[in-house]
Every structure is written in C-alpha cells, then in structure tokens.
TrEMBL record:
SUPFAM superfamilies: Winged helix' DNA-binding domain (SSF46785). GO terms for molecular function: DNA binding; DNA-binding transcription factor activity. It comes from the Bacteria. InterPro entries: Bact_HTH_transcr_reg, Tscrpt_reg_HTH_GntR, WH-like_DNA-bd_sf, WH_DNA-bd_sf. CDD domains: WHTH_GntR. This is DNA-binding GntR family transcriptional regulator. It comes from Rhizobium esperanzae. PROSITE patterns: HTH_GNTR. One of its GO terms (biological process) is negative regulation of DNA-templated transcription.
Amino acid sequence: MLPGWGIDIKGAGPLYHRLRLALEKAILSGKLKEGDVLYPERDLAEHVRVSRVTVRKAIDHLVQEGFLVRRRGSGTFVAGSAVRADRPPLCANSLTGDISFVDRTRKSSASGAARLIPHQRR
C-alpha cells in the first residue's frame, strides 16, 4: 500500500482526521480492497510523516466505523462491505470526527423532554 499509493493529507483540520479521510477514500475507491493488510502503524507514520499516535487515532476511527478490522498478532485489514453494513453510519463532525450528543440522541430511540418544576419554599 505505501510505495504505489500516494497519501495526500494536505488541508485543514486535525492530521488524524485528514489521514482517516485519505484511507477511507482509498477503501471506497477500491485502491484498498477487502482483505488488504495495512502496513504497520510505525511504517505508515514514517511514510506520511506524522506521529504514530496520529496514525493510531485515524485507524481507531476507521475500525469503529467498520472500514478496518484489527486482528491481534496479524495486523489491520480492510473490512468487507458486510462488516460496514452491520454498523449504522456515524454522523461525524467534519473537523474532529466526533459525534455530538445531539446526534447520538437522535440516532438512539430515546426521546428528550424538559419539564419546568416550580420551586417550593419550605
């Protein structure tokens, strides 16, 4: 994946988010196919010239979203579309990739309500 595939993470926003988007784009475009193994975090970090923590955070998000699968002792692999289909799409903040409380509440079956309770003097 590294030598023949240029990773472009230029732009605005956190590095991990830009790397996550670049990897996601490679998966969706077919440059990375189901079952392909990612290079180790250390090698990927060196190639992209970011810290290993940045790479780990980007990969963590892609694992949570179902694009990648980690196999202990084997590495990180591109997940199949069946794995992604099992997970609901995330409504992510475009800069941080974090899901807001409001979006999480809307996606759950919970309903919100507020009620004013009058103050009672003792």
